[in-house]
Write a structure and sequence with these properties.
The protein has two domains: 3-82, Nucleic acid-binding protein fold (2-Layer Sandwich), CATH 3.30.1940; 97-189, Nucleic acid-binding proteins (OB fold (Dihydrolipoamide Acetyltransferase, E2P), Beta Barrel). The protein is 6% helix and 36% strand. It has one helix and 14 strands; from the N terminus they run ββββββαββββββββ. The chain has one helix at residues 70-82, and strands spanning 3-7, 14-18, 27-32, 35-40, 46-52, 64-65, 97-107, 115-122, 125-131, 141-145, 160-162, 165-167, 170-171, 188-189. GO terms for molecular function: tRNA binding. Keywords: RNA-binding, tRNA-binding. Residues 91-200 form the TRNA-binding domain.
Length: 201
């Protein structure tokens, strides 16, 4: 998973690359040239990179989330290699917001509002998502933010757990998608919507 965003205002020409989620107190950094590597203290696993003076290497014009091309990722890999880092970045341009079909919806034990859902997001690909919306139920077509999605407010969707139950994505409300909210809870789509179809945010 590769999540990238560009900041040419507050951080002045910095490309931020996230590969996984990690609490800041568990992070260490190492800088070589214009690249800072962020990694986990214990495991040494790479969390991400910050590329300073990014516009010297890449053509980036907009602030916020960016979708890197294969050519841009290859340039970044060359920079890593030049700095004697053996890590390799890979492109992931799959849609992060898709139409999902709620196959199962069961109350979460010891909770008065959470449900554990099984949602089909592509051909036979099913994810488990814990959802707190009061209007979710089996048989609905909904909008799913997959892991790696960046919400309009900047929130990144990571795999996680709620009350010990794994949750891999988020079922979205209209407000969370930056749309006008006309009713409480998640956005329920017409049943004719195609499962797995990208949803434009």
């Amino acid at each position: 998973m590769l999540i990238s965003s560009y900041n040419n205002k507050g951080l002045k020409d910095v490309l931020i690359i996230q590969l996984k989620n990690c609490n800041i107190e568990n992070q260490l950094t190492e800088r070589k040239g214009n690249i800072t590597k962020i990694y986990e203290k214990k495991s040494g696993k790479v969390i991400g990179y910050n590329l300073f003076n990014a516009s010297d290497v890449l053509d980036l014009s907009e602030n916020g989330p960016v979708t890197l091309t294969e050519e841009q990722v290859e340039l970044l890999n060359e920079l890593l290699k030049e700095n004697n880092w053996e890590d390799t970045l890979t492109v992931d341009n799959s849609p992060k917001f898709v139409v999902g079909y709620v196959k199962e919806c069961e109350p979460l034990a010891d909770s008065d509002h959470l449900n554990v859902t099984k949602i089909e997001i592509d051909k036979e690909e099913i994810v488990q998502i814990v959802c707190g919306a009061g209007n979710i139920q089996a048989g609905q077509k909904v909008v799913v933010a997959k892991r790696g999605a960046i919400m309009p407010d900047g929130l990144v969707i990571w795999p996680g757990e709620l009350r010990g139950v794994k949750s891999n994505g988020m079922v979205c409300s209209a407000k969370e998608l930056g749309l006008q909210q006309t009713s409480k809870g998640i956005l329920v789509l017409d049943e004719s919507e195609e499962t797995g179809r990208p949803f434009t945010v």
